[in-house]
TrEMBL record:
This is Deazaflavin-dependent oxidoreductase (Nitroreductase family). It holds the Pfam family F420H2_quin_red. It comes from the Bacteria. GO terms for molecular function: oxidoreductase activity. InterPro entries: F420H2_quin_Rdtase (IPR004378), Split_barrel_FMN-bd (IPR012349).
Length: 125
């Protein structure tokens, strides 16, 4: 179970506008640059990201049906800006892990509390 869509709407309007300014350099955060599936418009979405075994893993706190996730999967990849670096990602795969063992302890606690067991994983390339 991911967070409710009402929280997602609030974050899109309020929280994301603030976090966009820090997500490009804070550890555990990134801006995902992706293109709309039908509009073709470029979007920039702040996310949590972690490197796990050389791949980039995104915590899907709103589930796998979020527009940005669907856009990345449909396009076969995306670009992220994290820790002041631009990284091109390919081969997106959605996975499930109820242990959240890949996440740092604080993040793991939050993911467990909201039962956000799904993640998106991509390869650098």
């Amino acid at each position: 179970m991911a967070l409710p869509r009402s929280i997602a709407r609030f974050n899109r309007v309020v929280t994301n506008r603030v976090s966009r300014h820090v997500a490009t350099f804070l550890p555990g955060f990134a801006i995902v640059e992706h293109r709309g599936r039908t509009s073709g418009k470029t979007y920039r979405t702040p996310v949590n990201v972690f490197v796990v075994d050389g791949r980039y893993r995104f915590a899907l706190t709103y589930g796998a049906h979020s527009d940005w996730v669907r856009n990345v999967v449909a396009a076969g990849g995306c670009t992220i800006v994290t820790r002041r670096r631009t990284v091109h990602l390919t081969d997106p795969r959605i996975g499930t892990d109820g242990t959240h063992s890949w996440a740092p302890p604080g993040v793991r606690t939050v993911l467990e509390a909201i039962s956000a067991d799904r993640y998106l994983e991509c390869s650098p390339g």
